[in-house]
Design goal:
- The structure is a single chain.
- The protein has about 170 residues and is an alpha+beta fold.
- It has a single domain, classed as FAS1 domain (Roll).
- About 40% of the residues lie in helices and about 25% in strands.
- A 7-stranded mixed beta sheet has the order 2-1-7-6-5-4-3.
- It is globular.
Length: about 170
């Protein structure tokens, strides 16, 4: 099963060059010890995520020692949310909700694609997300993994195509 999951993760990574091309100029720099926030900030596809991390005061945490595994939604993923959702979450009075959503995207430890296993995974939020394979795609809850193993000095980023929400 692990071999099949690895094949699916690699296929998802290779078949979708969307994020790869965005990281092309910055990926080498990321390998030179940028933390998770630095890697996300250096990419044009994570502007909403970075803004949300700032609004939630989580930048310092994700610049810490870690290690962390972040399932990072792209700007397109945030755009799929109902109209006004992102704007509402970014308001200071909704900081607690925003923190809950963002920490649901973070798993303690550095979990590379080859180490991912289907099942329930505890997040920093305290709730568990579900890793599965559906139609040949690796899924985190309802989000498809579209890029794996984006290296950072304090962990790894796996890019997802939807924002995942805790129950």
């Amino acid at each position: 099963m692990k071999t099949h999951l690895l094949k699916y993760l690699l296929a998802a990574s290779l078949s979708l060059g969307l994020i790869t091309s965005t990281f092309a100029g910055n990926h080498e720099h990321a390998k030179k010890a940028q933390d998770i926030v630095g890697v996300a900030s250096s990419s044009e596809v994570f502007t909403t995520l970075v803004a949300a991390l700032k609004a939630a005061d989580l930048v310092g945490v994700l610049q810490g020692d870690g290690p962390f595994t972040v399932f990072a939604p792209t700007d397109e993923a945030f755009a799929k949310l109902p109209e006004g959702t992102v704007e509402s979450l970014l308001k200071s009075e909704n900081k607690e909700k925003l923190v809950a959503v963002l920490t649901y995207h973070v798993v303690p430890g550095k979990v590379m694609a080859e180490d991912v296993k289907p099942g329930s995974v505890a997040t920093v939020n305290g709730a568990a997300c579900t890793i599965s394979v559906s139609d040949g795609n690796v899924m985190v809850d309802n989000a498809k993994v579209i890029q794996t193993d984006v290296a950072a000095s304090n962990g790894v980023i796996h890019v997802i195509d939807s924002v995942i929400l805790p129950n």
